[in-house]
TrEMBL record:
Alphabetical keyword list: Lyase
Annotated source species: Cyclopterus lumpus
Protein name as annotated: Gamma-glutamylcyclotransferase
Protein encoded by which gene: chac1
Record has Magnesium as a keyword: no
Annotated InterPro entries: ChaC, GGCT-like, GGCT-like_sf
C-alpha cells in the first residue's frame, strides 16, 4: 500500500507503526499512540543515512526492518484521523521516503495487552535495493560509525541512545540484543574518545 493510495481512498483513520526515531519523535499530529509489536520482521541498523544522522562522506546508521518469520519488532503505532491522515503522510513521505529512501508496506500491529485487537498499520522499510542500504556489520563496526556521525537532525549517537531508552522504558520485558550490543559498542568508543582528550 502506498501513501497516495490511502489519500486517494480518503481514509478517515490510519495507523502508522514506528520502530526507529518515530517512537520518540513522530513530529506529526495523531489521535492516540499505542506500544506494541509486529511479527515477521527484525529491527537492524543496516540502513545508511546521509541527511538526518550522517552525510555523504560519513553516512550514519539507522534502523530498518528485515524479514524474519520467527522475529517480532516492538515500537509504537500512531492513529491519525481526519485531516491528520493526509498531513502525516505528506510529512512522512518527505522524512522517510524522499530523504530516507524507505518504502511503505502494510503490517498487522498487535497492541500491548491481551484484550486489544490487532490493527493494520503502515510501516516504512528500507530495502536492499536502496542506494543507502549498508547491510550487516558487527556491533563494533556499527558502533564506531554511529559514534562519529552527525547529520542535519543531530548526532547519530542520539538516535541510538533514544531508541535504546525507549525499549528499556516502554518495553522492559523485550531483549533486543542487536540494539543493546550496538549501544554498548558505541558507548565504548565514546568513552575511549573522551579519555584521549
Amino acid at each position: 500500500m502506498k501513501p497516495q493510495d490511502i489519500v486517494a481512498g480518503k481514509a478517515s483513520s490510519l495507523w502508522i507503526f514506528g520502530y526507529g526515531s518515530l517512537v520518540w519523535k513522530p513530529d506529526f499530529a495523531y489521535r492516540r499512540s499505542q506500544v506494541g509489536y509486529i511479527q515477521g520482521y527484525k529491527r537492524r541498523f543496516w540502513h545508511g543515512d546521509n541527511f538526518h544522522r550522517g552525510n555523504d562522506e560519513l553516512p550514519g546508521r539507522v534502523v530498518t526492518l528485515i524479514e524474519d518469520d520467527d522475529a517480532s519488532t516492538w515500537g509504537v503505532a500512531f492513529e491519525v484521523t481526519g485531516a491528520e491522515v493526509e498531513e502525516s503522510l505528506k510529512y512522512l513521505t518527505v522524512r522517510e521516503t524522499v530523504r530516507g529512501g524507505y518504502v511503505t508496506k502494510t503490517v498487522e500491529f498487535f497492541p500491548e495487552g491481551e484484550k486489544q485487537p490487532s490493527v493494520q498499520a503502515l510501516v516504512y522499510i528500507a530495502t536492499q535495493e536502496n542506494a543507502l542500504y549498508l547491510g550487516p556489520a558487527s556491533p563494533e563496526v556499527i558502533g564506531v560509525q554511529i559514534a562519529v556521525c552527525r547529520g542535519k537532525t543531530g548526532h547519530n549517537l542520539e538516535y541510538l541512545l533514544r531508541l535504546a531508552e525507549f525499549m528499556r522504558s516502554s518495553c522492559p520485558h523485550v531483549e533486543d540484543h542487536h540494539l543493546f550490543s550496538i549501544e554498548a559498542a558505541a558507548l565504548n568508543v565514546v568513552s575511549y574518545l573522551l579519555a584521549c582528550q
